[in-house]
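Lab notes, practical 5.
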Amino acid sequence: MPDRPSPASRTTARSTLWASTVRTPGRRSPGSGPPTRPPTSPEPATTVTPTSGPTRRSGPSSASRVCPTRTGAPGGGGRLRREARAAHCPAGRVPRDRRGETGPTLTSEKETRALSKAGSLLAVWVTALAWLAADLVSKAWALRALAGTEREVIPGLLWFDLVRNPGAAFGLLPSGRPLFIALAVLLLGVGVWAPLALDMRRLGLGHLGLGLLVGGGMGNLFDRVFRGGLVVDFIDFRFWPVFNVADIGIVVGTVLILVFLACGLLRPREDVA
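Output from the prediction step:
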């Protein structure tokens, strides 16, 4: 009669059989398929909740200080970190990766207004001085070339004839020398005040008109002060009083200014009380 195995031997046999059938994760047993990897549980996504108020950091608090940010790895993590740092960035600071879009301007509003005023003043006085130079050169030529003679420039229409005029443009008011000097000085003041007080930034012809008016006034003022009170005229159409280059600037400049005033194009600057 065969011997029966004892309970202890049966328990050992079951353990050996169980160990041979159970496969260790990641290992390949003989005769089995490709190795299997242990299942991985998905990691919960971490979110960053911005705090309710800006965080204070030690160090100088300058408005031009740049708030650092980092560009995260591809995915949502980098975006979340940038949004969180933007929420913590104090007011007046600009994130480094966005300073090209919302960075501080180079000039302030006051500097922009000052540049606009300086540009208007420069445009007016460059025009005025250029017209004054043209008037003085033409009068010097007339005094030298037309002394005691006249020249017919366009037959039957235009002559150059030297005339000394004690009055205003086109020979008006021959006895009003003190009045004309006062008006010319007042005109110089207008040439300084108008570019600063009137909004002429978009009006190139406005600068031209005021410059011609000021330049023509200075040309005739020069004659009244340095040439015995007599203005040199030499342009003669025979059907019109004799005039000069300064008179042309006065008339054209006045017409341009009146047109702009009538159309409401010249208005006070917003920053001038």
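Observations recorded by the TA: The CA atoms of residues 168 and 174 lie 7 Å apart. Helices lie at 7-21, 76-88, 99-102, 109-145, 177-197, 204-226, 245-262.
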